[in-house]
Target: AFG1-like ATPase
Amino acid sequence: MSSRAMFAGVATVNNGVEMGGGPLVEYERRIAEGELLDGDACQVGTLQELQRLYDQLIEKAEDCRLDKYASSDKAGRSRWLWSRILPQSSCAPVKGLYLYGGVGTGKTMLMDLFFDQLPASWRKKRIHFHDFMLNVHSRLQKHKGVADPLEVVAGEISDESILLCLDEFMVTDVANALILNRLFRQLFSNGAILVATSNRAPDNLYERGLQRDLFLPFIATLKERCVVREIGSAVDYRKLTSAEQGFYFIGKDLSSVIKKHFQMLVGDAQPVPQEVEVVMGRKLQVPLGANGCALFSFEELCDRPLGAADYFGLFKKFHTVALEGVPIFGLHNKTAAYRFVTLVDVIYENRARLLCTTEGTPVELFENIVTISDAQHMAPRTSSRSRKNDNFDLCVDNELGFAKDRTISRLTEMNSREYLEQHAEVLAKKQHPAENRAENAVEA
Model:
C-alpha cells in the first residue's frame, strides 16, 4: 500500500476544470469501499503504467489535441484535405499502452477504470475491437470511389477520437490483418494514441495467419507507439463470482426446458418472428422474439454465415438471447465454434443475458480445441496407444485455442449472480432513461 498511498487524494485542475487523480486513486477508493479485492501485485503494476499514461496525458493534453472544444476549426474531412495539400507527420508526444494477459485478469476493468477518469471533454472512445473494425469497414464502404478511402477513414476516426481504447484486440481475419497496418500507421501519424487490451502479446497476434508477412509491419508500429505491459496474474477474477448456472442447462433434448424458461422471461407477451437491421442494409431474421428476448437454435445463429455485425445488431434490439443446442466443439464444427466465441464476446460486451442448453459444461464444450503448443505436448502414439485411441475430432487452431479460455471464463461469469445483477441494472437504465437523467441532474 505504501507505494500507492502517495497518489491518494490527488486531484488535478486543467483549464479550470477539476478532475480525479487518475486510475490508481480510483482503484484505492474501490478497494477501501470493498468493491474490489486487494493484494494483486500484477494489477497494481499495471495501474502504475495506466497512472503514468494518465499523468502524461493531463500534462500534454494541449499538445495531444485531446480537448474537442480546443481543436482546430479545420475538422473532419477538411483537415484530411489540408493534409493532402500540406503532408505532415505529427505523432503524439505520448506513447499509448498495450495490455495483454490471460483471461479474467482484469484487463478490461483496468482499462475502463482509466477511461472513466479522463475528462468528458476529451476526444476519446472506448470500444470493443470487433465493433471498431465493423465501423472501419462501414466507413470504407461509404467512401468507396475515393482515391484512398483508408486515409479518409483514418482522418475521420482521429478527428473524432484522438485517444482510442480498444478492448479484446484479436486479429483472426485476413481482411482486417491487411487493413490494420496502413490504418494505424495513418492514425498514429495523425496523432492518435492507442490503449488496447488483448489475450495475445503483440508478437503473437495473427500467428500463422494468411499473408502474415504483410501484417508484421503493424506489430513493429504497435510496439513503437505503445508501451507493452503483461498482466501476469494467475487469478481469474470472473470465476470468483458466485456462479449459479441458473440460465445454463446441460443435456440433450432440452427443447421443452428452454422454451419454458423463455416464456417465463417474456411474460404475457406473445413471441413472434421478427427481423433486425444490421450494417449496410442487411437484415437478421429472428425466429421468435418478444419483450426484449429472442429465441434461436444454435444452427440458426452459429451455423449460418453470420458475424460480429449481425450479433451487435441483434443486441441493439434484444437484451436476452435463448440459444438451444450448443454442441461440443471440434474439427467438424470449427467455424461454428468461432461464431459462438464471437457471439459470447458481443453478449458480454453488451452486458446482455444468455439462456442456453448445451451438451456440456463450458470446459467440456471446448475440450477438443487445442493450440499448436498443446498438441505438441500431447502423448505420442506408442505400441500401447494405437490409432484407434486418437481423437479424430481434435481441432488444432491457435486463435481458437487461445480464445476458448476467454469464452469459458465469460460463460462462467455470465451465469453468476453478480453478472445478472449488472444486466438488470443496465436494462433498468435503458428502460427508464428519463429517471436516470433526473437522478444525474440532482447529483450534479
In short: The CA atoms of residues 40 and 54 lie 21 Å apart.
